């Protein structure tokens, strides 16, 4: 009986395909670095955006120190919208390529009743079409932190072409709106102490 059961178990195991490794199982060795090639936008004046790579090569973070959109009392007409475009060069070992699997956006909002805010983001490789734009609305009244997460299905992750140097473009935007010129409203994605940042999770694969 035991031999029959063992044979049956072996037959069943042969019928089940081994699980494909996930993107998290493929991580290049060594240290990944990210260089900021260009920075443009009202939300990231020179010297106010910093990039750091996680020690395990699974993600990188962008920290802003002057990224706030504001409307209403004390603000200029153009202050309601702030944006930033980062052009990044990711250095990694040959034989690998990467895409962005998930992005976490964080910040703080002060929105009185009747005010509202918005956060928008997209990213793409130079020479390729955009991966799509995500838009998140923030309703007042709110005086608190906010966080949004954009996740891409594994089958839909756009990878940089193998063997080609393609810079990663990261575009973000925040807006603040208010119906009253007597009340101040703002949406911020900045941090003076590095505690608030935007986190992009790599998806790695072998070429």
UniProtKB/TrEMBL annotation:
UniProt organism field: Lentzea atacamensis
Residues spanning the signal sequence: 1-23
Entry-linked PANTHER family: PSEUDOURIDINE SYNTHASE RSUA_RLUA-LIKE DOMAIN-CONTAINING PROTEIN, PTHR38847
Keyword terms of this UniProt record: Signal
Identification of the protein by name: Uncharacterized protein DUF4360
């Amino acid at each position: 009986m035991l031999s029959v059961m063992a044979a049956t178990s072996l037959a069943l195991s042969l019928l089940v395909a081994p699980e494909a490794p996930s993107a998290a199982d493929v991580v290049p060795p060594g240290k990944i670095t990210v260089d900021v090639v260009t920075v443009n936008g009202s939300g990231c004046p020179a010297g106010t955006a910093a990039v750091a790579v996680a020690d395990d090569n699974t993600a990188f973070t962008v920290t802003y120190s002057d990224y706030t959109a504001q409307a209403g009392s004390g603000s200029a007409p153009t202050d309601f919208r702030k944006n930033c475009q980062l052009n990044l060069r990711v250095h990694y070992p040959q034989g690998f390529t990467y895409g962005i699997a998930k992005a976490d956006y964080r910040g703080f909002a002060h929105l009185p009743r009747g005010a509202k805010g918005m956060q928008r983001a997209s990213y793409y490789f130079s020479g390729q079409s955009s991966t799509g734009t995500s838009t998140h609305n923030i309703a007042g009244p709110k005086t608190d932190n906010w966080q949004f997460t954009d996740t891409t299905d594994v089958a839909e992750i756009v990878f940089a072409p193998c063997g080609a140097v393609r810079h990663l473009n990261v575009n973000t935007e925040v807006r603040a709106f208010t119906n009253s010129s007597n009340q101040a409203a703002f949406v911020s994605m900045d941090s003076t102490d590095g505690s608030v940042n935007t986190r992009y999770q790599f998806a790695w694969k072998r070429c």
